[in-house]
Write the structure tokens for this entry.
Amino acid sequence: MERFIDPKTLARVKDLPLVARTVAEGFLHGIQPSHQRGVGIEFSQYRSYEPGDDPSRIDWKLYARSDRYFVREAERESEIGTWFVIDCSHSMAQRSEDGAWSKFEYARYLVATLSWIAQRQGDPFGLLSLNEKESALLPLGTGERHWHRLLTRLHALSPGDRFPDLGLLDRHLARLQAPGLVFLVSDFHQVSDEIHALVRHVANAHNEIEAMALRCRDELEFPWHGPVRFEDLETGETVLVSANAARDTWLESLAAYDKRLRASLSGIGVTLNMFDIDQPLDAALHRYLDRRLKSGR
């Protein structure tokens, strides 16, 4: 029987690279190594240098002629990549009262682990953080150095403000619409429809979107008794309820919401994957990645 790591044990380890490698290699152990693709060797095009690009890929001859920085893109890299999109709105700060970590902390470890697997396979990968105040992008890149750049970005992120509307993301969306794989990590609890609009805008026949919806034990079990005051983390609105009277209504409403969410995403070809942040991360990833392997995706 497999042994999985207790969430509280993982949360006590503050070394993000160590946790990501431990969780990923636990899954990869015994699996036939995949072909190391790396960056394609056939030159395809130039594009403007962006923060996070490897300086060794700058074409210095072109710089001498144009006084501008350009990097050379390989054909494979320009065609396909893996994007990690992380919701940094304030609702992601939610945690269970006795939980090891918040949804946001769980999301960082989830992205760190999946990106480690991507770099082991030689796949280009990048990061987009979503926040109304500032949405930041790390362009596609490969290799362990680029993975550490991604980890640095993850360390610098924190949940706050609200989920941005599409108008603030225009300059980034074309990248997500290109052929490739997009992991969208969120609780999907926006006040309005921003995240659904984003998914509908990005989804097309050329890419694959995996929606990773995060839930915590308190949401799923509603363990309170007596009068309880709840606060909306994004609006600050509070409401006082009788927990005993509200429990059944809450659980039914959450189940109905998740059912509608799954149907809505399925209708545009997007897979919904549910993650309980109070369960072992490595167990959840084992189940998810095993399903992907068996489905041939």
